[in-house]
Amino acid sequence: MSHGDVEQNPLREALKLVAVTLKQGDVPFALAGGYALWARGGPEPEHDVDFVVAEEDSARAAELLAEEGLDVVQPPEDWLFKVFVDGAMVDVLFRTNGISVTREVLAEVDPIEVESVQMPVLSTTVLMGHKLNALEEHACDFSKTLPVARAVREQVDWDHVREATAENDFAVAFLVLLERLGVIEST
């Protein structure tokens, strides 16, 4: 790489393109998942970018992104669609942990500048609730969740997360681990 070249991160570029397209199309959305946590101080993810849209707006969002020339794919899962931008994968979810995303949920997000683009981002408390509720028998790698929890711990309402994840034994076990490690206060 020569001195004047700037290396581009394909996931960050995809994040910006999808966000700007949804903004310009007036589709309510929010940055979610690992990149939303990254925007709030967590480690940068390496796999994909996640956005949420209201279930009622999902077809319009997919249409808008396809009209922009992006590769929109409907996977077998019935709670999201995928967008590919130069090989980078963006998941656009309209249900999280089995619950439909609503416009009301999207109205309660914070606008944050991410990679020079002002966009709505889910709260750290909601994001950690989603992340812990996604833990299950076949996806229970605490080593990926622990650095995130440590990085954003002071921004999270842990009592709310405990309540939102009380039915998930894996999440409960993770919260006990956080307490025992001194990352969060015991209840």
Question: Could you describe the 3D structure shown?
Answer:
By secondary structure, this protein is of the alpha+beta class. The protein is built from eight helices and nine strands. The chain has two domains: about 1-120, Beta Polymerase, domain 2, CATH 3.30.460.40; about 125-185, no CATH class. A hairpin with a 6-residue loop joins strand 3 (about 70-75) and strand 4 (about 80-85). Helix 2 runs antiparallel to helix 5 (about 125-135) and helix 5 (about 125-135) runs parallel beside helix 7 (about 160-165). The chain is globular and about 50 Å long. Residues about 1-5 have low confidence and may be disordered.
Structural class estimated from helices and strands: alpha+beta
Measure the end-to-end span.
Answer: 52 Å
What is the total tally of β strands?
Answer: 9
SSE order, one letter for each helix or strand? HEHEHEEEEEHEEHHHH
Which CATH architecture of the largest domain would you pick? 2-Layer Sandwich
The figure for the number of domains is 2
Give the overall silhouette. Answer: globular
**Order of adjacent strands in the largest pleated sheet:** 1-2-5-4-3
**Major sheet:** 5 strands, mixed
Quaternary assembly = single chain
Number of helices: 8
* Range of helix content: 40-55%
> Can you tell me the residue ranges where pLDDT is under 50 for at least 5 consecutive residues?
1-6
User: Any idea of the CATH topology of the largest domain?
Assistant: Beta Polymerase, domain 2
Q: What is the radius of gyration?
A: 17 Å
Please tell me the overall pLDDT.
Answer: 93
Q: Which CATH C-level class of the largest domain is it?
A: Alpha Beta
